[in-house]
Amino acid sequence: MKTLWLFIIIVTTSSAHNFLDIVKNYIHSPEKDEKFTSNSKYDFIIIGAGSAGSVLANRLSENKKWRILLLEAGYMPNFFNRIPIFVGYFQLTGYNWGYNIEPQKNACLGMKNRQCSWPRGRGLGGTSILNYMIHTRGNKFDYDQWASLGNGGWSYVDVLPYFKKSERFNVPGFKNSSYHNENGNLCVEHVPYHTKLATTFLNAGQELGYKIVDYNGQDQKGFSYIQVNINHGKRCTGATAYLEQINRPNLEIITGARVTKILIDADKRAYGVEYIKDTIWKNVTCSKEVLLSAGTIDSAKLLMLSGIGPKEHLEELNIPVIQDSKVGYNMYEHIGFLGLTFMVNQSESLLQSRLFNPKLFLEYLLYKRGPISIPGGAEALAFIRTKYAPDERPDVELLFVSGSLHSDNGQVLKRALRLSEDLYDAIYKPIEEQDAWSIWPIVQYPRSVGRLTLRSKDPFEPPKMDPNFFSHPADIEIILEGIKHAINISKTKAFQAYGSRLHDLKIPGCKQFEFASDDYWRCAIKHLPSMMNHEIGTVKMGPQTDTYAVVDPQLKVYGIKTLRVVDASIMPAIPSGHVNAGIYMIGEKAADMIKQSWKGELY
């Protein structure tokens, strides 16, 4: 308890910058984990303790006869990680791999060196320890599309049971629905506190003729408070949901273990992995399968380091080619626009100077409620169809934030997003300490496709990630339509009660255009894109007839025995919304497929 009171004193008497340094020092002192025997024999080795890897470790260890090894490069997050408002701070710590995309020609122009950041979690729980916890399944037709591409068993009817299996649903007004389950591992709730501006956003939607919906139920189109992976005000990660409550002797978890290679024998069978822990290199083997759950970036990277990837690319780097495969292609990401800020004349937004208040922290510590329970200001969303929507699926998400990029006085978001000093000082510094809210319009089915490659065969060097943002002009036009819808929302009676007005300082690189003209917005989108960190597809799932498919519908790597990939990298097409719910689903479904493959040895 003394630590908690000390924490309250620190955050209320220090500047945000000093507090960030304190937090970073605190979490850079992880406990060393248990002893390990390098000659141990396992049935399954799981690489990565993220959302999917945590599910696999839990479900496979249900079989008491199987010995499971879970390897994670990071460590267990601490108490502060559970506090939703601190999401931005943790992206500036060692719990983030710190990846940046390649300098872009048509995007990230307002970021340092034209590089946007791609935060990726490094710790038990993976990116679920860093994300904004928003839980969206996507549209049912997204998964029907997967099946239509030749992926039998992945239609909406097939995957819905696994979405339900994963969740412990506790959202008022939508419980007892046939679309949900109240007994799963993963907490899905509303944030326990909503600002008046978030409620106004929903009221504005109704004023415009939209319904308040359960977007994870029958109808996705409409407005809603966000459903989040929160357990009574505390972040619920893959590790807290699937690992924290189990203590099984047949499951061994080793943290601080960075896998550098998958071991593959002359018969092209994966039989173990090579990893480094505490500067010591180790090999460990398994009798059944190696399961790769390192995420869209690192799963593709590890496959290529192990000799599975595009032949020409691997040969360029002098990596022996074991399987010629289109690893690293088909990379998609939801992308949007950060620059819509609406000023208000009442003190209702989330300003950092107000949040760092002893009473608010005491309320949170005692009751797990209040504004400290809001994940970085994200409170509500809408899924809408623009004039470009090719079918009945919403093609734009409008993410409502009860603040803006200036709300922390440039201490965290500016650094996490890599905003240039010139842009921040021109647009956001003049409105520091002023109340505002934002909408981020996000394209749901981007057409710009990227590729991930290796820089070298050094396993410690980050890969080269080039998403080719806005290489297809349709993506900008769809976001532009989203901007127009967002501005219409600001003009409703609901928001005009707060005197909402569009912040109209021009982005420095767009001063040649008339403010709020279509050409201005096109320029602004390129300068201030929002990275949703939903990258998918680098280890594409598909039938053998698909030349870009790396894994089959059972998630087995083509050409390699006893190796599966289980994470967002296998998604053949990007679902709408936020992808983490889909990753839990993939983990649940994969666990059942693996059990079925070895059903003769169950229990």
Automatic annotation (TrEMBL):
Organism: Atta cephalotes
Keywords: FAD, Flavoprotein, Signal
Residues annotated as binding FAD: T127, V259
Protein known as: Glucose-methanol-choline oxidoreductase N-terminal domain-containing protein
Catalytic site positions: H534 (proton donor), H578 (proton acceptor)
Stretches assigned to the Glucose-methanol-choline oxidoreductase C-terminal domain: 446-587
Any Pfam family hit: GMC_oxred_N
Annotated gene: 105624558
Cofactor(s) recorded in Swiss-Prot or TrEMBL: FAD
Annotated GO MF terms: flavin adenine dinucleotide binding; oxidoreductase activity, acting on CH-OH group of donors
Signal peptide extent: 1-16
InterPro entries with a match to the protein in the record: FAD/NAD-bd_sf, GMC_OxRdtase, GMC_OxRdtase_N, GMC_OxRtase_C
